[in-house]
Amino acid sequence: MAEVIWTEPALQELNAIAEYIALDNPAAARRLVKALFDKTNRLKDFPQSGRIPPELPDSVYREVVAPPCRIFYRVDETRVLILYVMREERQLRTYIFESS
């Protein structure tokens, strides 16, 4: 079983998305945050279950999709590092992962 670790940048992005949604619908923001944590918790048992992002075909990064978000992560021997969260409609900028 792998340990799921959320990085600070991923948590900041999730917080920004949730705050924006909460302006109109606080309950929907809470549901979204819960859904994203539920989705990433399954990575404890199935760390390779996410797909390789289409924009990064030859990378070590993987993603899970929990509409309206994409959650990017990397797996090492014992950990799943949640690196970045973004809205699906945004374009992925690969430089985000260059220092990860």
UniProtKB/TrEMBL annotation:
Domain of life: Bacteria
Keyword terms: Toxin-antitoxin system
UniProt keyword annotation of rRNA processing present: no
Keyword hit for Cytoplasm: no
Pfam families hit by this protein: ParE_toxin
Family affiliation: Belongs to the RelE toxin family.
Annotated protein name in UniProt: Plasmid stabilization system protein ParE
